Amino acid sequence: MANLYQEWSLEQDQMLWEYRNEPVSTIAARLGRGLRGVETRLAKLKDPSSNAYMRLFSDDRALSDENGKKPKFVPASEVLRRIRWDASLTSHDFSILYYDRVEDEVLEVPFDAPNTSIKGKATTMIDALPEHRIKGIKYKEQVVWDRDRRLDLVFSGPGIARVMESYDEWKQARDAEEEANHKRQAEVSCRLQSALGIERFTELKELSRDIQTTAQREDNMLLMMEVEKYVQTALTLFRQAREDPSTSPVPSLIAMNDYEALDQLSEIVALLPDTQLKPVILTEVWRAMKKVEGKPVENQPKELPEIDEADLVETFVRGSGPGGQKVNKTSNRVSLLHVPTGLRVECQDTRSLQQNRKIARKRLRLKLDEYLNGSQSRTSLAAQKAAAKKLKSKARSRSRQKLKREANNDPASETLEDGEPSF
């Protein structure tokens, strides 16, 4: 079954390039594209001889300035200061996206929202929030500053005045894109129904509906297992259609192998309305595709393991440490014991007992992840990434020093390979 072709716009290429260092499954979820299509397009954008590369980097909005250096990224504090004091801007039109370490997700609050959760004397959220926790800033519904993407439309690019003038055009384009996604979802669904047959396609729809319902349950502790089961069951439906093509209205549309079947599944999953669930399913589909293809899966962290409350022993003890009576008079220190593994964590980060309970559970999940996955746990992968980054930084520093000494004809340029001078 051939995939439906959808032309790549310049804006999509720019977004794909901005997110090029993220997992393919995450990019596919953001763009509403199939996994194989994203992987193929990204390879073209990295090929200087391709038309896609030339179109992207010949545009006026290329990713570097005329000197070949990235433009300086304006920090969040400067953007917030301008919104607050610029008379041409209305603060009510802006909102802040910040990382909440208790809920472990990015939340959105109005620019002038009062501070109700962060301790201290600050009365507003923008004054109380540490700058490193601010992830993005929105003008109405449009993101105008994004830390991860290094996007700044307030000071750089067209500027915030132009963004405000063209907001209606942007919203119309965004609505048109959503409508196109709905249309594409209908087209993909129609082709899948023609390939699988009505009975199997109906079963696939019910599976998709069930997994979305499961993901919405706050007490669900086995989402990853359910997602894995969903992908394998969906793959079984494609295999049944391939083994018995007589039940398919259009047998020529049936996927020829498991790899094609998983790619088709990724196309319909990428168009699901649940933005939190899409990357989770696509990550599992991506792993299955690489397994079928016989290639090693990229070193990317798995979802944190969930914890069954029945396996926990929770105790509350008297606080200790600096802070006087406000710390030592209340039993707000949380101690969690995971009975099956014997792992124990404690938390006394805040004066709020409920927040300490949430933080303790997050720490236990990280510790359990390290216990179960070892070198593939989030903590280990983060440490490996930091170590590799440090080695690259040292190598660049040694290279710069060597070039500088050679340029100055310094006899001390003869050094050992590890950067230490030879005596």
TrEMBL record:
Q: Where is the composition biased (Basic residues)?
A: 387-403
Q: Where is this region: Disordered?
A: 377-423
Species of the source: Fistulifera solaris
This chain belongs to which protein, by name? Answer: Prokaryotic-type class I peptide chain release factors domain-containing protein
Q: Which residues form the MJ1316 RNA cyclic group end recognition domain?
A: 74-147
Where is it predominantly found?
Answer: mitochondrion
Domain Prokaryotic-type class I peptide chain release factors per the UniProt entry, residue ranges:
306-402
Subcellular compartments: Mitochondrion
Q: Which Pfam families match?
A: MJ1316 (PF04457), RF-1 (PF00472)
